[in-house]
Amino acid sequence: METKDSRVSALAYRVEEAADAVGVSKSQIYELIRSGQLRTVKLGRRRLVPVQALADYIDGMTR
């Protein structure tokens, strides 16, 4: 039985969640996606941003 405190780590975020996680607007995330700087995956009609893609993008900014 799963308790309220047990959580599964996210593997991917919705665009809104990705924006919140990085502290930018949704439109900035969409621009990064359009420019090819941020990888995404499609799941049905949903566009998801893998957590690793955000980490890779941020890592690339610090180099």
UniProtKB/TrEMBL annotation:
Record InterPro entries: DNA-bd_dom_put_sf, HTH_17, SinI_DNA-bd
Ranges of residues in domain Helix-turn-helix: 13-59
GO molecular function: DNA binding
Protein's UniProt name: Helix-turn-helix domain-containing protein
Organism field: Microlunatus elymi
